[in-house]
Each structure stands twice: as C-alpha cells, then as structure tokens.
Specification:
The protein is an alpha+beta fold and 106 residues long. The protein is 16% helix and 18% strand. A three-stranded antiparallel β-sheet has the order 1-2-3.
Length: 106
C-alpha cells in the first residue's frame, strides 16, 4: 500500500516496521499456506506464501496431518494464533517458521 519493495527476504524480515500477524493454513499442501504481515509505517497488510520461507527451517518434517485429532491443539484453525505446535504434525514446521520470522533480527 505504501509502495515499499524489499529486494531480498532478509530485507523484508529485518525491516523493523514489518510484523507477522497471521497464518492461513492449507491442510492439503502446507507450502501453499499464507502468512500475513502488517507494515506498521503505512498500516498496510500483505501476504506471502509459506514456501517463500520454508528453507529457513532446519528441523524435522512430519508426514501425518493430525488436524482434527484429539491431540491437535487446533492452532491452525485460528489465523491469529502464532505459537509453536507441540505435536508431530505435517503442519507443525510452519509454526516453527513463524517463530523464526518473529525472532528475525531487526
């Protein structure tokens, strides 16, 4: 909205005015989920696919999706819930990527 462009992912993540605000899950393909961000100086909101950030994650990937299971804390159903997921679920790595984004040096 303010016309600002970031030439690299590092520029985007290190911008002190950029804040991750949400995650829209894609249960069929977690890579196609969406992160939402606010740019605090212009109050604009923008979205970026999870796949743009996946390589930041160096942990374990799980094959089974446990969404809807009694063990599932249902974090992915709340787009504003940005905490890490304690379960071994296919989508859990995305929540760890969120932590990496939130804690990226500004």
């Amino acid at each position: 909205m303010c016309g600002l462009n970031w030439n690299t992912r590092q520029e985007l993540l290190s911008d002190p005015f950029v804040e991750i605000t949400g995650y829209l899950v894609n249960f069929k393909d977690p890579e196609q989920g969406i992160f939402t961000f606010n740019h605090m100086s212009c109050k604009g909101t923008f979205a970026v696919k999870v796949s743009f950030f996946t390589d930041l994650y160096k942990g374990e990937f799980f094959e089974q999706n446990i969404a809807g299971d009694e063990k599932c804390p249902n974090y992915c159903l709340n787009k504003f819930e940005l905490d890490s997921c304690p379960e071994k679920c296919e989508c859990a790595y995305v929540r760890d990527v969120i932590q990496l984004i939130k804690n990226f040096p500004k």
